[in-house]
Design brief:
Oligomer: heterodimer
Distance between the termini of chain A: 50 Å
Radius of gyration of chain A: 27 Å
Number of strands of chain B: 27
Shape of chain A: elongated
Helix content of chain A: over 70%
Strand content of chain A: under 5%
Radius of gyration of chain B: 26 Å
Structural class of chain A: mainly alpha
Structural class of chain B: alpha+beta
Mean pLDDT of chain A: 92
Distance between the termini of chain B: 52 Å
Number of helices of chain B: 22
Shape of chain B: globular
Number of strands of chain A: 0
Order of helices and strands of chain A: HHHHHHHHHH
Number of helices of chain A: 10
Number of domains of chain B: 3
Largest sheet of chain B: 6 strands, antiparallel
Mean pLDDT of chain B: 84
Largest sheet of chain A: none
């Protein structure tokens, strides 16, 4: 099945499931079944199913459980279904009461972090691939190597040309930039002003240099462009790894407080 | 750090039971009497090879020596009794065969299935523990009745050499007709016998060519309608040709950094575009490049693998129109290839005469006058590839740039090539972690690799169709799994010589230091760390799908069999 076909199939299944839930709600309205209980239990079941994905990821080498990618698909679409059921359960409004409001906002945050994750895992990899892929664990090493090469070139310019113009430029603009990955959010937001500023500084400096110095500066500029590319890789790959630091803890908190909510609902059921 | 003795080649012999008396007895056999022991290196004496790289296999009547399709790297010599080869394909009728679903008619292997003779009894007796597989009584009776299906092998020559030389699967089932004693010599021994005895090398190579020719023709569905006598006639008139070198990895490594055009030119030429069509070429083993002249260079059109034909369209065109014809593409060996050249007259007499003219393949696409005119009229050659891309995509359904790189880098050799779709890979490293968790916390591959468009072919063992890493192994530690053909390393017999890692053209085998249970590194007498080869084993102990593929949450990683073109094209174009 092609990916587009799979997406269409999953979306159709999702719509069908949501339609079925609405239909059951309608049926419930003709009986004495409380829709809030129906929605609530359904939501809790969905949340537990969604959490099972984390458990599946930790089990390695058991083919019978199916591929993780299959679980991932289920996780995405069950997540969307859970969001829809949540809105039904909350009655499309912010609930009253501190715990319910806390749960409400945690759930919204969880859904938004999930959607953000889905968006960046689909949009960022193609951009990173087009930029020339590099393994995350190699980035810092490669950047250190680049910094060393720039330093050698600067020392070489001092020794051979007798001028300190490039060294001063290095001290003023490049040293801080080369020390470690920089401009994280600029790279994430595809903000290109930084590299343009560097290029402008390089062009500006060129007019004050002789032929030998210009050649050295050109070599340094190439290394700076490469460093900037690695910064982009670092920023993108860091975000791809770190967004889960938000999504997973939130899911834990959500399940914990949902269970508390359940206990309280049943504890005070007589008062309803 | 602990000092231990460095393991040596013959620390673990092929068989513990091989005695000096056995070796002496083997040396008196007709074949070994013709071998001069003085030609051998003192470190690798003839008797030493026999004592350590050979074993005596004793079989009862009906016991199976090797089964068709299983993998093995050893050759055999009958010492006593009769060993028979089963000629033709047989299969036992099963319940599923009786009720054929519509789906079975769409099966790509339908032709192969149809060409097998279906028997309504089991072919083999189920082997119990410590027992050899044997032919069933019914099958033995059938073979007795059909003498043409069972041929007794000449006891003065080696057999099983095809699988040993091409590092592939067994071409036929062999069984003991009487109680037999067979000398089984593993690839390491056979390789050294051939290295030190030129006559034996020539003799084995001739046997290989002669037998492979008849086996390939017999197993090809294209000739399945022919009687044994007709097949014999085709076989006698056909030529078996070999191009390139068995151990092609050395020459490949020398040209990997060259320009694509230079790499292509370096491959051994089989047929040049424009040559007169003198026959049909059947690829017997290995892979062949298919290219077409574009301006001053050559463009990769595709590749041919075992069982594929070259020149069929040209012959059909000639047969259909009577016009003299030339080959429309250039064919080159990719490293090493065996080809059978079947003369035009044989194809006309035994193939085309059985086919209605209208069923012959249509005229080749390059003969399309519209395209030819377009190409000829185009002064700006830079514009040409787009036209040719459209034309080539018709062949494989794969982007030409991707196909070109897969062929030129010889990734097509892989049966389980790890390909990552970089547009879906988030770099989560779940694949690496999954691999490490099943292999003592040491991942058996690196996610880094060669970029081909939006894909990356990683440094993970591809379990090649032609595993050249096996050639130089002194102990047979790196070998094929007998049933699946996957390449695995036996840690117990690996002596850490690095031969396989050096031979792997794709740098997919790494050498790792050896530690004891306490985590201390093991050193040899000179203080050099002991090493073992480490590579992907397809997680064979843990199920049918490798853990890396199982663990990928984004469907970004796939192990692809490059021989199964429709499947991998489907994945690339998903």
């Amino acid at each position: 099945m092609k990916l587009v076909q799979r997406r269409l199939f999953n979306v159709s299944l999702l719509c069908l499931a949501f339609g079925l839930i609405i239909f059951i709600q309608q049926l419930n309205s003709y009986t004495l079944v409380n829709n809030a209980f129906f929605n609530g239990w359904l939501l809790l079941t969905l949340m537990l199913l969604l959490y099972l994905f984390t458990v599946r990821k930790r089990i390695v080498g058991v083919c019978k459980l199916g591929k993780v990618s299959l679980w991932m698909q289920a996780h995405i679409y069950l997540g969307l279904l859970a969001a829809a059921v949540f809105l039904l359960h909350a009655g499309w409004q912010v609930p009253e009461g501190l715990l319910k409001q806390f749960l409400y906002f945690i759930f919204i945050a969880e859904v938004l972090s999930g959607l953000l994750g889905l968006m960046i895992t689909r949009l960022l990899p193609p951009c990173l691939a087009r930029n020339g892929s590099v393994l995350y664990q190699d980035i810092l090493g490669q950047q250190q190597q680049l910094a060393k090469e720039v330093e050698i070139l600067v020392e070489h310019s001092l020794a051979t040309t007798g001028s300190n113009t490039i060294a001063q430029f290095y001290q003023r603009f490049l040293l801080h930039f080369l020390l470690r990955p920089r401009y994280f959010w600029s790279h994430i937001l595809q903000y290109r002003k930084i590299i343009h500023r560097f290029n402008a500084e390089f062009s500006h400096l060129q007019r004050y240099l002789n032929h030998d110095e210009q050649q050295i500066l050109q070599e340094i500029q190439l290394l700076v462009v490469e460093k900037n590319r690695l910064d982009y890789q670092y920023a993108g790959q860091t975000l791809l790894k770190r967004w889960l630091w938000l999504h997973i803890p939130l899911s834990g908190i959500l399940i914990l407080f949902s269970l508390l909510h359940l206990v309280l609902v049943y504890a005070y059921i007589g008062a309803v | 750090m602990i000092q231990v003795r460095r393991p040596q080649r013959w620390d673990t012999p092929f068989s513990e039971e091989m005695s000096e008396a056995d070796v002496s007895r083997i040396l008196t056999s007709t074949l070994f009497q013709q071998i001069n022991p003085d030609n051998f290196n003192t470190a690798l004496p003839l008797a030493g090879i026999l004592a350590n790289d050979a074993r005596i296999v004793r079989l009862e009547p009906a016991d199976v020596l090797v089964r068709k399709g299983e993998y093995g790297g050893s050759a055999f010599l009958t010492l006593q009794g009769d060993v028979c080869v089963i000629v033709g394909d047989f299969k036992a009728e099963s319940l599923t065969d009786k009720k054929k679903s519509w789906f079975s008619f769409l099966s790509k292997n339908q032709e192969a299935q149809e060409s097998a003779t279906v028997l309504n009894f089991p072919l083999f007796n189920a082997a119990k523990a410590q027992q050899r597989l044997s032919l069933s009584t019914e099958f033995l009776a059938y073979l007795d009745k059909h003498a043409e299906s069972c041929v007794t092998l000449d006891s003065s020559d080696f057999y099983g050499e095809i699988a040993a030389l091409v590092r592939g699967s067994r071409q036929a089932t062999l069984f003991a007709k009487t109680a037999v004693e067979v000398l089984e010599i593993r690839w390491q021994g056979l390789r050294d016998l051939m290295r030190y005895d030129v006559n034996l090398k020539t003799s084995i190579q001739n046997l290989y060519k002669e037998r492979n020719l008849s086996v390939q023709l017999r197993h090809n569905s294209f000739f399945s309608h022919l009687s044994p006598a007709q097949l014999q006639a085709v076989s006698e008139r056909s030529l078996f040709e070999s191009y390139g070198q068995f151990d092609w990895q050395h020459s490949f490594k020398k040209v990997t950094d060259d320009l694509a055009s230079k790499r292509l030119q370096a491959e051994p030429l089989i047929v040049k575009e424009g040559d007169y069509v003198d026959g049909l070429l059947l690829i017997c083993s290995g892979f062949a490049y298919l290219s077409k002249k574009v301006n001053h260079g050559e463009k990769t059109i595709g590749y041919l693998k075992q069982g594929d034909f070259f020149g069929l369209e040209e012959l059909a065109h000639h047969s259909g129109t009577g016009e003299p014809n030339t080959y429309q593409h250039t064919l080159r060996a990719i490293g090493y290839v065996d080809v059978i050249r079947i003369p035009t007259s044989m194809i006309k007499q035994y193939v085309f005469s059985y086919i209605d003219k209208k069923d012959l393949p249509s005229l080749f696409r390059t003969a399309n006058p519209v395209i030819d005119e377009y190409v000829a009229s185009y002064v700006d050659q830079k514009q040409l590839p787009s036209l040719l891309n459209e034309q080539d995509s018709f062949d494989h359904g794969l982007d030409t740039d991707i196909l070109e790189q897969l062929v030129e880098q010889r990734f097509i050799n892989g049966t389980s090539t790890m390909v990552i779709d970089k547009h879906r890979c988030t770099g989560c490293d779940d694949c690496v972690s999954a691999c490490a968790s099943l292999h003592d916390n040491q991942a058996r591959f690196s996610r880094a690799g060669t970029d081909i468009g939006k894909y990356s072919v990683t440094h993970a063992c591809m379990h090649c169709t032609d595993p050249v890493c096996l050639i130089g192994c002194p102990t047979g530690a790196i070998h094929r799994n007998i049933e699946l053909g996957s390449i695995i390393v036996d840690d117990n017999t690996c002596i850490g010589c690095s031969g396989c890692a050096t031979s792997c053209p794709y740098e997919n085998i790494v050498m790792r230091e050896v530690f004891n249970e306490k985590g201390e590194a093991l050193l040899d007498e000179k203080g050099t760390p002991l090493l073992k080869a480490s590579k992907c084993d397809l997680c064979m102990q843990h199920g049918s799908v490798p853990a890396c593929e199982q663990a990928c949450p984004h469907d970004a990683l796939k192990r692809l069999d490059m021989g199964d073109i429709p499947s991998f094209v489907d994945w690339f174009n998903r």
